[in-house]
């Protein structure tokens, strides 16, 4: 029996099993097996094949945003709408309008057959926008170019799911199912769980909160299913069984997501208002250039980039070329953003202006571990050379 057949068998057994206190241990074991088989399907253990399954697109800029949508007509006799289909949701048009990158645009499915990159320049930052080939139903099982799309989407800092405002909500549900099945968790944070393997000592289980959605017995059953008999488990929030399996596998990606509904010029104002009020949702029209500026603003907010300006000693800061970093970055990240050789010789830095400075507008002396905030102005005025401290004007 192949992996796909095993996955289908487990899914059918889970659908037949009633969810109650008596069956939660059995369901936990089935979920663990299902996650393991899905990982084998998308990331085969054999190394005999060609290296890598992603698209040959180098990651560039300060952040990467992936455009994902359906590409194949979805026809299912179980669906009441016989004409349910999601081709041409407008990914290529959005890429062309926001990045001025030439991308083939057409009203039929499979317009995009490979990843097409573009660059959005916004507030001094360069954001790479990737137009990925559309996902077909069954992409989580490797159908179409599912493995390539998933492999590239996991490297993104933000996912834009393009949807057709004139179609039913089934399109959104199906895309969420496909992405969840391959280990991409949308708009979720990593569970606060500490898991460490050991060679001896058995299983040590601790929880700082009351668990209402799972229990210790279920977790020990899952660990036994993965043949883990010596480990430390510390749980610091009320988690589900799926959350623990995600941490156990360790390959899950927690990525923010915006749902972008295109073609709002073809629906009523009431429908558009309802969609616009849905969390993490943007309504646009690529053909009429409606709300594209707001979409870029929301992308910037979701990416949570921090702009840091550098200053030479005795000179004004350079406000035209900021260093863009992720939220939570430190002075060490700023040094690496200028040149890798700066951090090893670092003595201390100066934060002249910005939210992270306690003495603004006067300089504050900081270490490599100091966290910078948006629009900080920093400089490095002292380094060690041959064991001696020496003043030196640098670009940071």
From TrEMBL:
Keyword Nucleotide-binding: yes
Domain of life where this protein originates: Eukaryota
GO BP annotations listed: positive regulation of cellular response to amino acid starvation
All residue ranges annotated as the OBG-type G domain in the record: 86-304
InterPro entries: Beta-grasp_dom_sf, DRG, G_OBG, GTP-bd, GTP-binding_2, GTP1-OBG_CS, P-loop_NTPase, Small_GTP-bd
Gene Ontology MF annotations: GTP binding; GTPase activity
The entry's keywords: GTP-binding, Hydrolase, Nucleotide-binding
Protein name, as recorded: P-loop containing nucleoside triphosphate hydrolase protein
């Amino acid at each position: 029996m192949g992996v796909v057949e095993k996955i289908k068998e487990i899914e059918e057994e889970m659908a037949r099993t009633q969810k109650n206190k008596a069956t939660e241990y059995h369901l936990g074991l089935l979920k663990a097996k299902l996650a393991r088989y899905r990982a084998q399907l998308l990331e085969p253990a054999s190394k005999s094949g060609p290296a890598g399954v992603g698209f040959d697109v180098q990651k560039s800029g300060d952040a990467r945003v992936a455009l994902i949508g359906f590409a194949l007509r979805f026809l299912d006799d179980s669906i009441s709408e016989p004409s349910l289909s999601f081709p041409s949701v407008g990914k290529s048009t959005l890429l062309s309008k926001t990045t001025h990158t030439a991308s083939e645009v057409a009203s039929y499915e499979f317009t995009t057959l490979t990843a097409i990159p573009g660059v959005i320049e916004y507030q001094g930052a360069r954001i790479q926008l990737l137009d990925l080939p559309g996902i077909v139903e069954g992409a989580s099982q490797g159908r179409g170019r599912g493995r390539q799309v998933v492999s590239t989407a996991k490297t993104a800092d933000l996912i834009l799911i393009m949807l057709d405002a004139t179609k039913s909500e089934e399109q959104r549900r199906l895309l969420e199912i496909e992405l969840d099945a391959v280990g991409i968790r949308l708009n979720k944070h990593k569970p606060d769980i500490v898991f460490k393997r050991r060679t001896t000592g058995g299983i040590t289980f601790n929880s700082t909160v009351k668990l209402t959605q799972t229990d210790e017995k279920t977790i020990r059953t899952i660990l036994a299913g993965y043949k883990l008999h010596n480990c430390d488990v510390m749980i610091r929030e009320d988690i589900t069984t799926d959350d623990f399996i995600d941490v156990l596998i360790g390959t899950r990606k927690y990525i923010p997501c915006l749902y972008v509904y295109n073609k709002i010029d073809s629906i009523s104002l009431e429908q558009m208002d309802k969609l616009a009020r849905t969390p993490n949702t943007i309504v646009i029209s690529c053909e009429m250039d409606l709300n594209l500026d707001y979409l870029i603003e929301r992308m910037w907010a979701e990416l949570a980039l921090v702009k840091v300006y550098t200053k030479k000693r005795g000179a004004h800061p350079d406000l035209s070329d900021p260093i863009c970093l992720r939220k939570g970055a430190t002075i060490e990240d700023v040094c690496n953003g200028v040149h890798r050789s700066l951090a090893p010789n670092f003595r201390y830095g100066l934060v002249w202006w910005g939210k992270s400075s306690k003495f603004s507008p006067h300089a504050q002396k900081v270490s490599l571990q100091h966290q910078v905030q948006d629009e900080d102005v920093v400089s490095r005025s002292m380094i060690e050379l041959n064991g001696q401290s020496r003043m030196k004007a640098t670009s940071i």
